[in-house]
Automatic annotation (TrEMBL):
The lineage of its organism: Bacteria, Bacillati, Actinomycetota, Actinomycetes, Kitasatosporales. Keywords: Repeat, WD repeat. It comes from the Bacteria. This is WD40 repeat domain-containing protein. WD repeats lie at residues 4-45, 46-87, 88-129, 130-176, 275-310. It holds the Pfam family WD40. PROSITE patterns: WD_REPEATS_1, WD_REPEATS_2, WD_REPEATS_REGION. CDD domains: WD40. It comes from Streptomyces wedmorensis. The keyword Lyase does not apply.
Length: 310
């Protein structure tokens, strides 16, 4: 295990470049930092969001990054110099989710206004606005063929409308996934696009078949809040991060501390390995493109690199 240190507040997001050479992290300290994975050194860091970075994504070629915070629109950055390229104007109540499409020609963002929006990063033009969520959108993901977008929201009432699947070309909702969900924290597609996954604040991991929306699995993960999710490049494993800091003290004492990274079998939710070391909520996880390493980030202000080979 290797640690990357330098942030002065909780690290909220982490992402690898497509070649696995670079790692991007964002923090409540308002900064984005780009790291050299092999050397474990910071390449550069820059002030990005005064309200703290809530989400960040790295383009496949590593040349661009998008970030969002609690206030104002998402921003696009050149990573070579940490310079702002443009802002995606319109989603001004804050951006809590962001993703690049697989080829890097689109950006999807989710906001505090409950909308999912797709943008052209070359021009900043809004291409699609997807309406339907009734709470903050916490996570967005493109399907591997970029035809679909998956999104989840932070609605606290148990319901079946927290995870939604959208047709990007037509700009319409295709389906809603799940029953009795509570505060979706992350969503993801399998690499072949056949399955959709989500994690929730009540320690659940869920899977559905995209074609018909049928539930393929519902699993309990640990004892804390499951805050983040990543799918391995081969689709056979999942990575989750948990935290217990959101529980009231008396409940947390009864459940125990669960600031843990877990490697799970994607087909059955079985825990394959557990990675301990974070001393606060684990708020972000990501697989390296080779599937042999993974990064996690958390409230203890660190980014950690793990060997996830079995």
């Amino acid at each position: 295990m290797r640690s990357f240190t330098g942030h002065t507040d909780a690290v909220t997001c982490v992402a690898f470049s497509a070649d696995g050479r670079y790692l991007l992290s964002g923090s409540d300290d308002g900064s984005l930092r780009l790291w050299d994975v092999a050397g474990g050194t910071e390449i550069r860091g820059w002030a990005a969001e005064e309200s703290g970075v809530r989400c960040a994504a790295l383009s496949p070629d590593g040349r661009l990054a998008v970030s969002g915070g609690d206030r104002g629109p998402a921003r696009l950055w050149e990573t070579a110099g940490g310079t702002e390229v443009r802002r995606f104007e319109g989603q001004d109540s804050g951006t809590s989710a962001a993703a690049f499409s697989p080829e890097g020609r689109l950006v999807a963002t989710g906001g505090g206004d409950g909308t999912v929006r797709c943008w052209d990063p070359a021009t900043g033009q809004e291409l699609r606005r997807l309406l339907g969520h009734t709470a903050d959108v916490t996570s967005v993901a493109f399907s591997p063929d970029r035809r679909l977008v998956l999104s989840g929201d932070a609605k606290v009432e148990n319901g079946d409308d927290h995870v939604r699947l959208w047709d990007l070309q037509e700009g319409r909702e295709l389906s809603r996934f799940g029953e009795w969900l509570f505060v979706v924290t992350a969503v993801a597609f399998s690499p072949d696009g056949r399955f959709a996954f989500a994690t929730t604040m009540d320690a659940r991991l869920l899977a559905w078949t995209v074609a018909d929306g049928r539930e393929a699995g519902r699993f309990r993960v640990g004892t804390g809040n499951v805050l983040c999710l990543a799918v391995s490049p081969d689709g056979r494993r999942l990575l989750t991060g948990s935290g217990s800091d959101f529980y009231e003290t008396d409940r947390s004492t009864g459940l125990g501390t669960d600031n843990t990274v877990r490697l799970l079998d994607a087909s059955g939710g079985r825990e394959l390995r557990r990675y301990d070391g974070h001393t606060g909520n684990v708020s972000a996880v990501a697989f390296a493109p080779d599937g042999r390493r993974a990064a996690s980030a958390g409230a203890d202000r660190t980014v950690r690199l793990w060997d996830v080979t079995l």
